């Protein structure tokens, strides 16, 4: 039975918040229920995979599907819980579509936490955390991750730096050109990448960042990257340099 | 005068196909003319920068602006021509928005050539080369590149391999998991990255690729990356490993 579920459940992976264990029945919220019933045309007995960021990955089956919702029941564990690298992405929010894209890509590239920050040149005045989370959940489901990155409350750059955990190195992607390449500067986790808004950091912010002893300015190459490109390139390069354990 | 233009022309960079030299007058096509007149509200005497992929970057000024179009005249060279790394991106085309995004990002990350390929699981049946080029031009203008990547004619994977220039190493981003990390396998240019369609390469294609002595299978980490994420991560990691000269 578990093997059959493993086979059939290879396509659909769902993130749930409930605890997972053998024969744990999990009633799904409206969104995933609708997706299973009306998009995937799933029926009772169909297999899928579940993960919750704590209990590994489980082969499961649909055990109830009514108008009131879908219940799935975990049957057999298919993977032990593993952690992504302890790597945060601190980013100045950008216009809507790039932010969706950024949340997806950062999740695929293994960021443990997405931290929106407000800087002086940040144009966006509001961050839709639910929307970032929805994009991160979808990307986690599709990429085979066993966890969803934490979406942190937006803070100003000043507050971020004032309350920074000092053992975590902050790689500041600086366009000024006199910094070391990230791949050479990278150190093991805990770590964080910091990227600016469309217009970059202003001179006072750059000076403030460079004055912190937990900050390492880094360059991503000779071209001027868009804010979202810089974030993705930095995550990929750091993971690559540190041997991305998944 | 040239200094003033350099100052004023810091914001607008335009790719042109004409030769550039001191006092070379370049009539612009309709698209850039419209952009300068109606989006940027530019007037005769306004400064901008020009590049053509051959003659470096030039400070220029608008010397005519009429209903029939805009003429710009190069005044002083502000940068010598430099080459990006000889790195190609061979990719199975994906749905419209990701392809636009991919062309932009690959340009920012310094790809010299974008080569669309058709594979067995490629869903897209047509590639809009003009649209890819328009995205690449815009990204080159904004990223400070002095060249625009070449947009190659789409070919099938079989044809690509049959006519492959053997001195160019092809890094095949393989999801199977038994390949070496790209950062470890990377060799100096000439090089090319190969990424598959949404559904990946089929088993026969994977066998064909692995049978070529110019192909190196590589992994980008333990998670399953979307086609466009894989392409961007691979470009960033190769550039980082090879010291991206720009």
Key traits:
homodimer; alpha/beta; Ribosomal Protein L25, Chain P; Alpha/beta knot; 8-stranded parallel beta sheet
List the helices and strands and how they pair.
The structure is a homodimer of 246-residue chains.
Chain A: H1 2-8, E1 13-15, E2 25-27, H2 30-39, E3 47-51, E4 57-66, E5 69-79, E6 87-91, H3 96-108, E7 113-118, H4 129-143, E8 150-151, E9 155-156, H5 157-162, E10 169-173, E11 180-181, H6 182-185, E12 191-195, H7 203-210, E13 215-219, H8 227-242
Parallel strand pairs in A: 1-3, 6-7, 6-12, 7-8, 7-9, 10-12, 10-13, 11-13
Antiparallel strand pairs in A: 2-5, 3-4, 4-5
Helix pairs in contact in A: 3-4, 3-8
What would you note in describing this structure?
- Two copies of one chain form a homodimer.
- By secondary structure, chain A is α/β, with parallel strands linked by helices.
- Chain A folds into two domains: 2-79, Ribosomal Protein L25, Chain P (Beta Barrel); 87-242, Alpha/beta knot, CATH 3.40.1280.
- The first copy, chain A, is 32% helix and 26% strand.
- The first copy, chain A, is built from eight helices and 13 strands.
- In chain A, the strands form two sheets. In chain A, strands 6, 7, 8, 9, 10, 11, 12 and 13 form an eight-stranded parallel β-sheet that branches.
- In chain A, strand 3 (47-51) and strand 4 form a beta hairpin.
- In chain A, helix 3 packs parallel to helix 4 and helix 3 runs parallel beside helix 8.
- Chain A is elongated and about 60 Å long.
- Residues 1-9 of chain A have low confidence and may be disordered.
- The interface between A and B is medium-sized, with 32 and 32 residues.
């Amino acid at each position: 039975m578990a093997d059959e579920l493993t086979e059939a459940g290879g396509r659909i992976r769902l993130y749930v918040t409930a605890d997972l264990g053998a024969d744990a029945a999990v009633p799904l919220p409206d969104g995933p229920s609708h997706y299973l019933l009306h998009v995937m045309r799933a029926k009772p007995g169909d297999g899928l995979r579940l993960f919750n960021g704590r209990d590994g990955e489980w082969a499961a089956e649909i055990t109830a599907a009514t108008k009131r919702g879908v219940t799935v029941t975990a049957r057999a564990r298919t993977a032990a819980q593993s952690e992504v690298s302890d790597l945060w992405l601190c980013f100045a929010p950008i216009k809507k579509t790039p932010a969706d894209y950024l949340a997806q890509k950062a999740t695929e590239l293994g960021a443990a936490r997405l931290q929106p920050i407000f800087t002086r040149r940040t144009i966006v005045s509001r961050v839709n955390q639910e929307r970032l989370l929805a994009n991160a959940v979808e990307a986690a489901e599709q990429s085979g991750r066993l966890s969803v990155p934490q979406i942190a409350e937006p803070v100003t750059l000043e507050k971020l730096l004032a309350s920074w955990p000092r053992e975590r190195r902050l790689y500041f992607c600086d366009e000024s050109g006199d910094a070391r390449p990230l791949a050479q500067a990278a150190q093991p986790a805990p770590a964080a990448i910091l990227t600016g808004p469309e217009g970059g950091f202003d001179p006072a912010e750059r000076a403030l960042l460079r004055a912190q002893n937990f900050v390492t300015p880094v360059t991503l190459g000779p071209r001027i990257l868009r804010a979202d490109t810089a974030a993705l390139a930095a995550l990929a390069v750091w993971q690559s340099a540190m041997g991305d354990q998944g």
